[in-house]
Amino acid sequence: MASNPQNKKGQALKKNKKAIESYMKYSGMGVQMALVIAAGSFAGVYLDKYLETKPLFVVIGSLGAVFLALYLFIRQILAESPPEDPEEE
Fold first, then answer.
1. Taking a C-beta distance cutoff of 8 angstroms, is the pair 62, 44 a contact?
2. What does the pLDDT look like over 28-76, one tens digit per residue?
3. Which residues have CB under 8 Å from 60's CB, separation 6+?
4. 28, 65 in Cβ contact below 8 A?
5. Phi-psi region of 4 (alpha: psi -120 to 50; beta: other; left: phi over 0)
6. Distance between CA atoms of 42 and 89, rounded to whole angstroms?
7. Taking the mean position of all CA atoms in its chain, how far away is CA 5?
8. Are 64 and 42 in contact (CB under 8 A)?
9. Are the C-beta atoms of 58 and 41 separated by less than 8 Å?
10. Mapping DSSP to helix (H, G, I), strand (E, B) and coil, where does residue 16 land?
């Protein structure tokens, strides 16, 4: 029995679609991290200009934004991972 070329094409499309979805998910997480860090940095620059302090709020805003971005990233990764089965041990 000969293999169906349509079936092979369908499997290739499903595999390609899954790869694209994965790429989009992780690139979206990267964009989210960049936007959070940029927002924290710009907020620090604004507060430094408004309160006439030099590097204080830029440093605080940037570091706070990095920690917030990492927290959001880890939370998303853990939410997508399957729960552990306690009976496996």
1. yes
2. 999 999 999 999 999 999 999 999 998 999 999 999 999 999 999 999 9
3. 44
4. no
5. beta
6. 48
7. 37
8. no
9. yes
10. helix
Exposure of 22 in the CB half-sphere (CA atoms within 13 A)? 6
Nearest to 32 by CA among 78, 64, 73: 73
Amino acid in position 33: M
pLDDT band at 1 (very low <50, low <70, confident <90, very high): very low
N residues, the chain: 89
Mean pLDDT of 70-88: 82
- Using CA atoms, how far residue 1 sits from 4, 6, 16, 21, in Å, is 9, 15, 27, 34
* CA torsion, ordered 60, 62, 68, 70, to nearest 10 deg: -130
Q: Which long-range contacts (CB under 8 A, 24 or more apart) does 19-27 make?
A: none
Position of tokens 């620090």? 44
- Helices of type H across 52-89: 56-80
